[in-house]
Design brief:
- The protein has three helices and three strands; from the N terminus they run ααββαβ.
- The protein is of the alpha+beta class.
- A three-stranded antiparallel sheet has the order 1-2-3.
- A hairpin with a 2-residue loop joins β1 and β2 (38-46).
- The chain starts with a helix and ends in a 7-residue tail after the last strand.
């Protein structure tokens, strides 16, 4: 599973997925500061069906070539991590 994470991240970037939390999610899950201005914020959970949709349908459609990946076996939680996302400047 750990080897699949970088692949999924690359696929999401290549497919132009924008991981933007809705205002409701942002209000329900405020950023948590961990150290020196670094924060993380839970965005959403993607289930196995959604991940397999990305692997089996969206990526080949985007790339224009048939690609075969092993199916996802676990859901993932997506987080925004970085400097001060909860601040008014961002």
């Amino acid at each position: 599973m750990l080897r699949l994470v970088p692949t999924l991240a690359a696929i999401l970037v290549l497919c132009g997925f924008s991981i933007v939390s809705s205002p409701a999610v942002a209000q329900d899950n405020p950023p948590i500061q961990v150290t020196s201005g670094i924060e993380y914020q839970f965005l959403e959970r993607w289930d196995v069906d959604r991940l397999n949709q990305i692997l089996k349908v969206d990526t080949p459609k985007f790339a224009g070539i048939p690609v075969s990946y092993s199916p996802a076996s676990n859901a993932v939680r997506l987080y925004r991590v970085g400097p001060g996302y909860g601040s008014p400047d961002h």
